[in-house]
Amino acid sequence: MKFSKLKEIDSSLDILFGDAESFDLTGISNAQKPEENQFIFVKSARFLADIGRLSQLKEFKESGIILEVKFFELIKDSEDFEKLKSDFAWGAVVKNVNHAMCSLSKPFYDILFGELNYYVDGRQMGNAQVHVDAQIAQSAFIGCNSKIGAGSIIMPGAVIMPEVEIGDNTTIFPNVTVYPYSKIGNNCRIHASTVIGADGFGYNFIGGEHVKIWHLAGVVIEDDVEIGGATMVDAGAFMPTKIGVGTKLDNFCQISHNAQVGKHNVFAGQAGVAGSGETADYCAFGAGAGLAPGARIGKGCQLAARTIVSENAIISDGMVLGGHPARPLKEWLRSQAKIRQLIK
Length: 344
What we know:
Blueprint: H1 3-9, E1 14-17, E2 27-28, E3 38-42, H2 45-49, E4 60-68, H3 69-75, H4 79-87, E5 88-94, H5 97-113, H6 122-125, E6 129-130, E7 135-136, E8 141-142, E9 147-148, E10 153-154, E11 159-160, E12 165-166, E13 171-172, E14 177-178, E15 182-184, E16 189-190, E17 195-196, E18 203-206, E19 209-212, E20 219-221, E21 226-227, E22 232-233, E23 241-243, E24 248-249, E25 254-255, E26 260-261, E27 266-267, E28 272-273, E29 278-279, E30 284-285, E31 290-291, E32 296-297, E33 302-303, E34 308-309, E35 314-315, E36 320-322, E37 327-328, H7 329-343
């Protein structure tokens, strides 16, 4: 898609630098990981500070950046803006980033999802790749262009939608639904009634209504992950929701859009990570514990049952937390004892 087509959708788009029209744009990236031939949105200093945080690249010569006009006015004479001009292939402004996220994500969603065949099994169409050693139940549905690896088992009632990849020796239990563009690794177990890759719960409040941000990025589940029954792992908006190697989720957990879950985490029942939350490796969540949007916890952190880490909070490695808002567990226990004394 050309920049000129995006401008037809949002006329407030204006080029600041570079030749955006020379790129065939394939989608929208998250600011933390700009991708080639895509662009990111930045509307505040917080998003500016996050640019490239999850990327191995330092410059993004094949990527673009769209700034909100009000924020651009604040930084246009700064070193920050000069660095953006150096790091990115092109830059533009838009009147309202929240509005643009909704309107500009829709045409990319339509390209990705608009012509998928949800109705005829890919095996019947001849374009699903199912390894000869895989076992597929009669009532399972395997979507077009999906891939099922050696030794994997797809049980009755499972729905594997188009463009899904499932590795070797993975078991998909009854009535699991896997949405398009989800990738599940080797030696995984996904238990009954779980949903992988449904649209994230992402909306912007515009003109008195909640307007949808169209989710483009799918889910990546790495090797040796086990996910309990009736758990939800939502698709990422502009980067994949990820669950790292060896992580184990109990029943009724929620991993929201853009969440980045590290390796060998454990989640007890009803625990979860809200949108854009992050966990490092070897973290443990008690029942009902969770991260609010944008919260990040370090390696080896432990959250007691019902603990909630506040929005955008950053927690150091090895912390053991309790309460809401989360604080060191011993401190929280002392506060609870004090409250009981005061009640008496």
